[in-house]
From TrEMBL:
Protein name per Swiss-Prot or TrEMBL: Hit-like protein involved in cell-cycle regulation
Motif Histidine triad motif in this chain: 100-104
Gene Ontology biological process terms in this record: nucleotide metabolic process
All residue ranges annotated as the HIT domain in the record: 8-116
GO molecular function: catalytic activity
Gene responsible for this protein: hit
Active site location: H102 (tele-amp-histidine intermediate)
Length: 116
């Protein structure tokens, strides 16, 4: 399935739910997390609906990860963090709450920045 009408991130891609765009190309969408763990917390998702890493094709993974350096640099330019964690939860047991594959880009600002 490339679009799941019940998926909140598919609705975001379709523009049915507003989001703050960080980056977009033909295959990838990046937007600010609604609940910012750190300033500039960004989610990077494939435009097709895949639940988790186990469902990703090499093609989808390639286009997604190819975009990560430029998205990370855009976050650096916008927010000037001093580091960045890139996190991905797969499955409820791993803390996944939205079942459309996503990477968390978590800019870091030093001790007490809210993460880790
Ligand atoms: P997970 O726990 O699945 O790894 O992360 C899901 C993330 O999606 C959470 O950080 C949560 O704040 C974010 N999120 C959930 N619903 C929305 C939404 O409607 N808009 C945006 N921008 N982020 C969302
Ligand atoms: Zn989806």
């Amino acid at each position: 399935m490339s679009h799941d009408p019940n998926c909140i991130f598919c609705k975001i891609i379709a523009g049915e739910i507003p989001s703050a765009t960080v980056y977009e190309d033909d295959h990838v969408y990046a937007f600010l997390d609604i609940s910012q763990v750190t300033k500039g917390h960004t989610l990077v998702i494939p435009k097709v609906h895949k639940r988790n890493v186990f469902e990703l094709s090499e093609e989808i993974a390639s286009s997604l990860f190819a975009a990560v350096p430029k998205i990370s640099r855009a976050i650096n330019d916008a927010f000037q963090p001093i580091g960045m964690n890139i996190v991905n939860n797969n499955g409820e047991a791993a803390g996944q709450t939205v079942f459309h594959y996503h990477l968390h880009l978590l800019p870091r600002y030093g001790e007490g920045d809210g993460y880790g």
